[in-house]
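User: Reviewer 2 asked us to show a designed sequence for the structure in our supplementary figure. I'm pasting the structure tokens here. Could you produce the per-position amino acids so we can include them in the response letter?
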């Protein structure tokens, strides 16, 4: 099937899923929030599957007939697919827990540059079965950071091994194929998981706790870390994810937008039922304000760490912290959600 036909076919699936979710009668009292979450997560996973497929197919096309336009298309598809992952990254339960899938999509943090070291090993594996090497090579070689290294790392791009050299193309094709396959399986597994998710009351609290953990990671690791507010107190772009591609703040924007579109509607339903409509409205405004702030910032973290840009980054930190407090303390208390251990912290 062609890239266009395949993507169009898969793009129709979220709409069909929104119309076809079956809900058992005993769950009608809880239906709106749980059903909204199930449907939005399914749509998010399907967007991830579509975007990673487009990335894999554009990589194949570029490596078969490399040119500047093809390279730019691959880079654009990497950004789109990475943002699709960021939008649904907050879900830390269910099928994404199997086989360290979240880490397979994004190995981060990587303070010892394991991705770069693994890339050099793979690039020296000429003639090997690279699909097998990626599948067995561990999470550092299997997802977006490895593809990012091959596409955007300045040092690598200045070397004789840079794309479209055959070894680099072989590795990139294997990595993007693995990521696309992983995303397609995840989308299918979530669809199969849906009846269990809808029937188990405990998943209401689990979903809320997942969003709480995502906000913690956004504030404490993805924003405060690079700003030097944690650890050694030094500002460093290398503490951010996606620093090679200059897409760190764009990724944060995608994560906040994903929480707003996928999580907030169900949370608002829950708060309305708990007699807290004003809190739901405040949290909605907090998401809107945070996204408005992010729209004023560059895609890259580096420029925001310098000069006047740092003041805007401080404003983002405050906006996110206030949103974190509203959800993790006020909303959690209003809904009786007890904070638990977060197994995905830092993924």
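Assistant: Here is a per-position design you can include in the supplement:
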């Amino acid at each position: 099937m062609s890239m266009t036909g395949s993507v169009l076919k898969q793009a129709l699936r979220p709409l069909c899923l929104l119309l076809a979710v079956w809900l058992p009668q005993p769950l009608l009292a809880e239906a709106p929030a749980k059903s909204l979450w199930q449907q939005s997560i399914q749509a998010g996973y399907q967007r991830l599957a579509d975007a990673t497929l487009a990335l894999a197919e554009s990589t194949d096309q570029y490596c078969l007939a490399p040119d500047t336009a093809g390279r730019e298309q691959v880079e654009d598809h990497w950004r789109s697919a990475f943002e699709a992952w960021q939008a649904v990254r907050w879900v830390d339960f269910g099928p994404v827990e199997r086989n360290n899938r979240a880490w397979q999509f994004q190995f981060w943090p990587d303070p010892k540059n394991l991705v770069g070291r693994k890339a050099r090993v793979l690039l020296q594996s000429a003639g090997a079965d690279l699909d097998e090497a990626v599948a067995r090579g561990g999470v550092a070689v299997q997802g977006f950071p490895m593809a990012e290294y091959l596409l955007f790392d300045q040092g690598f791009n200045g070397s004789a091994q840079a794309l479209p050299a055959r070894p680099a193309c072989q590795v990139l094709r294997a990595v993007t194929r693995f990521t696309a396959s992983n995303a397609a399986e995840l989308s299918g597994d979530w669809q199969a998981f849906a009846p269990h998710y809808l029937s188990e009351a405990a998943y209401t609290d689990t979903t809320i706790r997942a969003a709480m953990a995502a906000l913690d990671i956004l504030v404490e690791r993805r924003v405060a870390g690079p700003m030097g507010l944690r650890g050694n107190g030094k500002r460093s772009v290398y503490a951010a994810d996606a620093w090679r591609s200059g897409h760190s703040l764009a990724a944060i924007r995608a994560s906040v937008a994903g929480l707003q579109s996928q999580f907030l509607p169900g949370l608002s339903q829950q708060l309305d039922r708990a007699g807290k409509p004003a809190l739901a409205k405040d949290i909605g405004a907090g998401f809107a304000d945070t996204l408005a702030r992010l729209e004023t910032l560059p895609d890259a973290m580096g420029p925001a760490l310098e000069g006047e840009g740092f003041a805007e980054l401080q404003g983002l930190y405050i906006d996110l912290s206030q949103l974190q407090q509203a959800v993790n303390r006020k909303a959690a208390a209003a809904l009786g959600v007890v904070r638990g251990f977060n197994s995905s912290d830092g993924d």
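For the response letter, you might also mention the following. Residues 1-30, 342-347 have pLDDT under 50 and may be disordered. The chain is about 70% helix and 0% strand.
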